[in-house]
Each structure stands twice: as structure tokens, then as C-alpha cells.
Design brief:
The chain is of the alpha+beta class. Helices cover 14% and strands 32% of the residues.
């Protein structure tokens, strides 16, 4: 296990990185359930800084994440129709405005609660990105093709993929989300892995541990706050990705309510 010797001014915790043995191999690890996650990752001691005191200095295009005020147009996130027909279009328009994109296309959303019965819906317990960094432009063009759009019209366009992460029902009191500062990531830190078992799979990516990495979180995130997180970007000079994970906060009160949140994934077009 790796350990950090840094002054304890941040929240001490552990996160799961891709195991170091995967650094020098052409084989891709495969993660699709709790057992494969444990087998291919290793716990690392880290310090997660509460970013609220420096929120004004953090931006999604430098650090890969940014906290924004956003009041959801719905309150019942168990209403699947309301999420699809009201929340998703509203959050897409919000992201379009704050990023200056010409268009935003939603790909999917995930609602995470204390339910552990589904690995894909439970709190994500390893530091990960949602896509392979090698496919930013090709994945963007494929999305346009799948939406029956003429990709020739987008030959000069740039693309960025974002997640929005928002709690609902109550503030985040346990299992908060930690984001890795993109400005502390170096070439070679992030490698591909296969997400999925013997059935449907996809190629995603996750970081290998490095001492210089810095994690942040926003303590007690409120239901009227949203975290915008970068996942891919074809634009030169912008942050590429902010890997993320849930973590156990030792400062969570014993009576803390289980965290409930919605994550929406989307692609933004810049023309």
C-alpha cells in the first residue's frame, strides 16, 4: 500500500487506484464487479481537500471540475419520466450556457443511492474516468452519427464531454465524491481498462497512483448545487479529464443520511 506523508490539514482517507502492476503491460485489466475491482485495484492513503475555501479559484477548464449553483426543476428523482423529460433537458441547457457550447447531447444518467444490489448503480469505489482518453474525437463523431446528424457539418468543431453530479433529497453527509485535479495529472498517469465482463464491454480509463495527485471535494454539498466534471476534451490547452471516486469521510456524523445523487453524462459541441 502506498502512503502519503503530508501535513494533515485535509481529510485523510483511502481511495482505490489501478494496481501498480498494470503500469508496464500491454494487457488491459477488466473491472465489472466488486471482486474484479478488488483484484485489479489497490487502496492508497490520500488527503482530500475541502475546496469550498478556494472555490473561486477552481475552474472546469483548468482543474477539470467546478462547483455551480443549480436548482433542479424536479424533486422526485424516483419519477423516471420526470428525470428523462424534465431534468435531463434542463441540465443540458444549463451546461450549454455555462460552457458556451453551441449544443449539448445527453448520453445517459445514473442515480446512485445506498442500494448495493447493482454494481453499476452503487457508489463508485475506485478512481476512474468514464471514457478512454484516446477516443475523444472519434467518440464525438460517432455520437453525432448515431443521432443521424451530418458529421461533415462538424469538421471544424471541437468537443468536450462532461458529467454533472448533484445530490438530491438532502445534503451529502456520507460517501461524498472526490475529484482529482486535472492540473496535477501528467502524461502516462491514465491508462485504459475494460469495463464489463464476458458480455457487453467498453474501454474506459483510470489513473495509476502518483504522489503529486491532489484530490478535492465539497463538504456538505447541497441539493441546489451541482458539480460539473470534465471527462474528455478535444480543445488544445484545456483540462482533459478529472477522474473521480466516492470515498469514506471519517468526519461524517454517525447519524448521517445515505447519500443520494444523480450523475448525467453529456457531450458538448463548440463551433
Amino acid at each position: 500500500m502506498h502512503r502519503m506523508n503530508v501535513a494533515s490539514q485535509f481529510v485523510p482517507t483511502q481511495v482505490r487506484y489501478l494496481a501498480a502492476r498494470w503500469a508496464d503491460t500491454n494487457e488491459l485489466p477488466r473491472i465489472y464487479d466488486r471482486d474484479s475491482r478488488r483484484a485489479n485495484t489497490e487502496k492508497v492513503d490520500v488527503l482530500v481537500r475541502n475546496a469550498r475555501d478556494i472555490a473561486d479559484t477552481i475552474s472546469v477548464d483548468v482543474n477539470g471540475f467546478e462547483l455551480l449553483d443549480y436548482t433542479s426543476p424536479i424533486t422526485d428523482f424516483e419519477d423516471a419520466d420526470a428525470v428523462t423529460e424534465v431534468y435531463r433537458p434542463a441540465i443540458a441547457e444549463f451546461v450549454r450556457k455555462v460552457t458556451g457550447a453551441s449544443a449539448v447531447f445527453i448520453t445517459n444518467h445514473l442515480i446512485r443511492t445506498e442500494d448495493k444490489s447493482d454494481f453499476n448503480k452503487a457508489y463508485a469505489r475506485f478512481v476512474h474516468c468514464d471514457y478512454s482518453l484516446k477516443t475523444a474525437r472519434s467518440a464525438s463523431l460517432n455520437l453525432l452519427k448515431n443521432r443521424k446528424l451530418d458529421v461533415k457539418l462538424y469538421e471544424r468543431a471541437e468537443f468536450a464531454w462532461f458529467n454533472t453530479w448533484q445530490p438530491f433529497d438532502h445534503p451529502v453527509q456520507e460517501n461524498p465524491l472526490a475529484v482529482l485535479d486535472a492540473s496535477t495529472i501528467r502524461d502516462g498517469d491514465i491508462v485504459d481498462y475494460i469495463y464489463g465482463g464476458t458480455g457487453k464491454t467498453s474501454t474506459s480509463s483510470m489513473p495509476l497512483f502518483r504522489e503529486d495527485h491532489q484530490f478535492y471535494y465539497y463538504k456538505n454539498m447541497q441539493p441546489d448545487e451541482v458539480l460539473l466534471i470534465k471527462q474528455l476534451d478535444t480543445r488544445i490547452g484545456r483540462s482533459a479529464v478529472s477522474p473521480h471516486t466516492s470515498f469514506i469521510d471519517p468526519e461524517s456524523p454517525s447519524e448521517a443520511l445515505p447519500r443520494r445523487s444523480i450523475e448525467v453524462r453529456m457531450m458538448a459541441v463548440f463551433e
